[in-house]
From TrEMBL:
CDD domains on file: S24_LexA-like (cd06529)
Sequence ranges assigned to domain Peptidase S24/S26A/S26B/S26C in this UniProt record: 106-218
Gene responsible for this protein: lexA
Name of the protein described by the UniProt record: LexA repressor
The entry's DNA-binding region: 26-46
Assembly description: Homodimer.
Amino acid sequence: MLTPKQQELLSFIQTRLDEGGVSPSFEEMKDALDLRSKSGIHRLINALEERGFIRRLPNRARALEVLKLPDAMHRAPTPIVPPKPKLVTPPPLLPIAANDVIEIPMHGRIAAGVPIEAMEGQAMLSVPAALLGAGDHYALEVSGDSMMEAGILDGDFALIQRTDVAREGQIVVALIDEAEATLKYFRRDGGRVRLDPANSAYEPQIYDSRQVRIQGKLAGLLRRYN
């Protein structure tokens, strides 16, 4: 038997899958259930997974599959209205001195402290081509100060080259448990992965290697000046 909140979340996930074939983000689930933080969503997801109602699809972010629905939901499904999409205001662009400029997609904010979800967005950022090498790139706005000793400050734009592999000591975007992402130094510690901050006030984050998936490595940095 599910609690009201578990049933409400399950119904919301099923509704979004029926509408677009993509499961909602943790932020969208939090807003739909009117919760204060995403930690409550994590607990609800874990409970639904343990009871066999959903499963997480491996090697894919934001990928949930509904395996079954309670009898009560089959008889009288509770309609849930998805939250209205939030308007995303593109950040002010920095003055560009170089003539050769390209645009790369902005994928929201990423923590340089406690891990947060890397959100997808529609904004574009103009970047001097000289800052980027070959490959596919995207930008993330840095939130937090745990990489400040590496010169990466709160509000900076991290320019990320897409890759799923990293060398020892590189600064990477690491996706943890297919749910949350963070910007840290990448280290291997036996069969585990250690994500090191560049701020003595923070402790390294250590995970089983199966919990961490590399989504890119730092290729450059743009500083926002207010």
